[in-house]
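Email to the structure team, subject: DUF2269 family protein model.

Hi all, the expression group asked for a predicted structure before they design truncation constructs. Nothing fancy, just the tokens so they can compare against earlier work. One-line instruction: predict DUF2269 family protein, return tokens.
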Amino acid sequence: MSTSDHILLILHIGFAIFTLGPLTAATMSTPRHIRNRNATVVRYLNRTTQIYGAGTLLIFLFGLWLAKGELAHVWLSASMTLFIVALVLLLIVERDQRKAAKLLDEAGPAAAPAAAARAAEPAADDEKGDKGEQAAEAKAGAAKTAEQAPVAGTAAAEIAPVERGRIAAISGVIALIWLVILVLMVWNA
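Reply from the structure team: attached below.
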């Protein structure tokens, strides 16, 4: 192996480490932030996926250059095929991240009806005298809001469940593909 091939191999390994690590972390942490309804972080993770996803193409190109046309080896063909499959799956994850961020933006900030009900109850209990009627009305309104809280909480949990599940599943598959490629590269290098 020549000096230029060693430099290319170092670049290939360096890009793999510093690109696939953050990419995997971004895709695998997205479902948690969708569940927490944090649209800002989901948009940030989507942008991270886009940037590092494009960076993975350099890994592929350096690998092709290192192969120097010797693609007849089964392990090289398998690695490249798996890499392309991972890139296609990554496009699906990126699309779902974008869609989840849009759904979270459309849903807006979550209202906290249960917290409002708890805040109204002590105020209603402290009311005395002429304000007793107002306190009773506030308490009745708080009870009605508290009854509606589980419904609102259920609706809040239902934002982007399909995207969240698909991102979680596909991210795990992508990480497994990266590990299989790593094993193929180390075993046959």
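The chain has one domain: 3-110+161-188. Residues 3-110+161-188 form one domain. Ping us if the truncation boundaries need rechecking.
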